[in-house]
Amino acid sequence: MDMKVENPPVTALDLPAVDPLPERTAAYFALCEEKLGLVPNVLRAHAFAPAKLDAFTAMYNELMLADSGLSKLEREMIAVVVSSINRCFYCLTAHGAAVRQLSGDPVLGEMLVMNWRVAPLDERQRAMLAFAEKLTREPHAIEEADRAALREAGFSDRDIWDIASVVAFFNMSNRLASATDMRPNPEYHAMAR
Known about the structure:
By secondary structure, this protein is mostly helical. The chain folds into two domains: 42 residues, AhpD-like (Single alpha-helices involved in coiled-coils or other helix-helix interfaces), CATH 1.20.5; 119 residues, Up-down Bundle (AhpD-like). Helix content is 63%, strand content 0%. It contains nine helices and no strands. α4 runs parallel beside α7, α7 packs antiparallel against α8 and α7 packs across α9. It starts with 22 loop residues before the first helix and ends in a 13-residue tail after the last helix.
């Protein structure tokens, strides 16, 4: 599917661009272009303050790409479920595309967006997403029984830390994207369909 789209503004905020970009930032953007075929708008949005961009990308890369007991697909599934609860257009679009790509299933991302309970998931994934939903909706209500359910599903304490970290990161990112009316790159809509 060849989709011709115009690039909308990255955010509703008119933040001053850094021009020229610091060498490190320009190199990172070039790497994104090479690997992804685009520079995600979330990175462009942070580029007005290189220190903020560096902090954001360091945390994202550690949580979503580094070694973990959670697969990359599982981390993306968490991102989509949290973003669905928070109704974050940016993250649902971008991470829904990642779920489609990593799973090879164009329907799975849509199911997670609408209602993760209808998706064909194993018990481990169901326990993980139930925890992610509760931590997003009622963080004050998390108790030992919730962690015990994750352990029973096969997660280690380190895995539980990683699940919670991904949930927390996307709750923060969703709020920032919503507050600034951050828009996803149009290319995400056609990916892995």
